[in-house]
Amino acid sequence: MARLKTAVLLSGRGSNLQALIDAALEQEFPAKIVRVISNVPGASGLDRAEKVGIPTTTIDHREFDGREPFEATLQTELQNSGVELICLAGFMRLLTKSFVDRWHDRIINIHPSLLPSYKGLHTHERVLSDGVRFTGCTVHFLRAEMDTGPIIVQAAVPVHPGDDADALAARVLTAEHRCFPLALRLVAGGKTRVIGNRVEIENAGAPDVVSLNPDDGKA
Ligand code: GRF
């Protein structure tokens, strides 16, 4: 089986990368992580990749005069590695429309909220101050506008009384680690079809193929 050549882009600790690495250990997993790229020198996610022999590259955005030259280097690196799909796993740089369009339906991103609610940063703090009872995470195809794009997988996560942002972030992160591998499996396995703003999943007879909720006993 040809596995889809996948790059993971990150800026930090890489716990989502770890979830993807662990999932890809399975022989039948349809994606192979061929390169991990960080825009932050020394990001600890790079160590996770190196530990299992995945080549890494650091492209420090501060060394470039603007987004375009940074992305030109990124593009060359991706091309040289034969990358077919990009996973953004805590990659804290906005990408330009021209880069995102070039990779149309070939970039997937994880965001720690139930999109389209709570786009942007500090999601957990905003969830807590609004007093909503559920939050969650979303894996979606990337579009140029921040944190938008067709939704592949979501998980709902309850907000508990007394939660602070750290406690809530930890609970959401556990769900992220289930959602991202699931989404990558679906996309790399050719099970997703983007129709307008929606993603259709092949043979998704039951809702739990693409939505994880707190009543399923695992969240
Ligand atoms: C995650 O919460 C992800 O949703 C957000 O950034 C965080 C990255 O965490 N985009 P990690 O580096 O994968 O541990």
Strand-helix topology:
Layout: E1 4-10, H1 15-24, E2 31-38, H2 44-51, E3 56-58, H3 67-80, E4 85-88, H4 97-102, E5 107-111, H5 123-130, E6 134-141, E7 151-158, H6 165-188, E8 192-195, E9 198-201, E10 211-212
Parallel strand pairs: 1-2, 1-4, 2-3, 4-5, 7-10
Antiparallel strand pairs: 5-6, 6-7, 8-9
Helix pairs in contact: 1-6
Specify the CATH homologous superfamily. Formyl transferase, N-terminal domain
User: How many helices in DSSP terms?
Assistant: 6
Helix content: 25-40%
Unreliable stretches (pLDDT < 50, length at least 5) are none
Widest β-sheet, arrangement of strands: 3-2-1-4-5-6-7-10
* CATH class value: Alpha Beta
CATH topology: Rossmann fold
Q: What fraction strand?
A: 15-25%
Number of strands: 10
Sheet with most strands: 8 strands, mixed
Helix and strand composition category: alpha/beta
Radius of gyration from the alpha-carbon trace, in angstroms: 17 Å
Order of helices and strands: EHEHEHEHEHEEHEEE
Mean pLDDT: 94
Overall 3D shape:
globular
* Count of the separate structural domains: 1
CATH architecture tag: 3-Layer(aba) Sandwich
The ligands bound in this entry are: 5-O-phosphono-beta-D-ribofuranosylamine
Distance between the termini: 31 Å
